[in-house]
Description:
By secondary structure, the protein is mainly β. Helix content is 9%, strand content 29%. It contains two helices and seven strands; from the N terminus they run αβββββββα. It has a six-stranded antiparallel β-barrel.
Amino acid sequence: MQDNSLGQKIGSVVGYLGYRTNALAGNHVTMLGFPSSFDSGNVLHRVDSQSFKSTTTNTVEFGSDLTQESSGGPYIENFGELSSGQFVSGIVNAIVGVMSYGPTDTSQKIAGSSNLDSQFTNSSKTGILDAACTHKSGNC
């Protein structure tokens, strides 16, 4: 997206989420998406779930009824606003994964994500995040 007429980036206007790598397995997350099976995909839905299965292909599965059209939605660790005096160990509102797949049999109620690893960010500046950050000064 282009900066607005005041030179502001979209994240500084509407807010943004942080991220944490290699944190998907053994985690409890909030998943957000616009599944086509609910409200014709026009309403944001939320599911909170614990990971239950890691695969050998770098993916992790969670219980979820989010279906088709939820792909690309974030898996967020410690989602929400902290109350006065509340403490959370780790980053608040950190993306740890992205909705990648689910079963064709929707009665299975699972959803999977790839782990954010060196393909997401790495020191050689070839990861997806690194490419976006170096695309334009001030992106990250």
